[in-house]
Amino acid sequence: MKKLLILLLLPFLSSAQLKIAKLKYGGGGDWYANKTALPNLIKFFNQNLKGNIYPEEDIVEVGDRKIFQYPYIYMTGHGNVVFTPREAENLRNYLLSGGFLHIDDNYGMNEFIRREMKKVFPEYNFVELPFNHPIYHQKYSFPNGIPKIHEHDNKPPQGLAILHEGKVVCFFSYETDLGNGWEDKSVHNDPEEVRQEALKMGANILQFAFSSY
């Protein structure tokens, strides 16, 4: 399966720029949230890590075979998420083929995403990554793990993952709201130092995802 993803990616790997995508899903949740987040993260990554990602994200549906064209898929929202059996199978094949899913809880996704990811990987549970995991020590070091960006329920931020054969295939940023920190400053009026922490962690996730496929 990994060879399939590499073959599908060849036109993108050989061209000037990679593309990343936001995941469109069913169930009524606002998959389209954080409209300025990914363009700002891409700009930060390109400027600070000498990346060459296309400046705007694509939109891809869970069940679409086009998902295999992207090494990194971003998923966000506030509410319900529903995967059909065919969508769950497509997402599973994508992740087992070397793809990377970053689920960023914008607040309210936790119970739904845990339920739906069980359709994708019934044999696995989310586990918290230790603070010495490479995802926290790419270009930027986060010795205390994922940073807290927005306060929701007075819970500590967590970097959770689904591991397949020891490899992170899905990263779930929980109780932090990284995407809000990536947005234009005018959207949430976050202090610049908070926005920079969010962007640096996002850049680490992208770098880790790109190095994994």
Structural description of this entry:
- Residues 19-210 form the DUF4159 domain.
- It contains 7 helices and 7 strands; from the N terminus they run αβαββαβαβββααα.
- By secondary structure, the protein is an alpha/beta fold.
- The chain has one domain: Domain of unknown function DUF4159 (Rossmann fold), CATH 3.40.50.
- It has a 7-stranded mixed beta sheet, with no helix packed on it.
- It is 36% helix and 16% strand.
Topology:
Elements: H1 2-13, E1 21-24, H2 37-48, E2 58-61, E3 73-77, H3 85-96, E4 101-105, H4 110-120, E5 127-128, E6 158-164, E7 167-174, H5 178-182, H6 185-188, H7 192-212
Parallel strand pairs: 1-2, 1-3, 3-4, 4-7
Antiparallel strand pairs: 5-6, 6-7
Helix pairs in contact: 2-7, 3-4
Keywords: Signal
Protein name: DUF4159 domain-containing protein
Domain DUF4159: 19-210
Characteristics:
7 strands; Rossmann fold; 213 residues; seven-stranded mixed β-sheet; disordered N terminus; globular; 16% strand; alpha/beta; signal
Radius of gyration: 16 Å
User: What's the main sheet like?
Assistant: 7 strands, mixed
Element order: H for helix, E for strand: HEHEEHEHEEEHHH
> Given the C-alpha coordinates, what overall shape results?
globular
Offer a quick outline of the entry.
With 213 residues, the protein is an alpha/beta fold. It has helices at 2-13, 37-48, 85-96, 110-120, 178-182, 185-188, 192-212, and strands at 21-24, 58-61, 73-77, 101-105, 127-128, 158-164, 167-174. It has one domain (2-212): 3-Layer(aba) Sandwich (Rossmann fold), CATH 3.40.50.
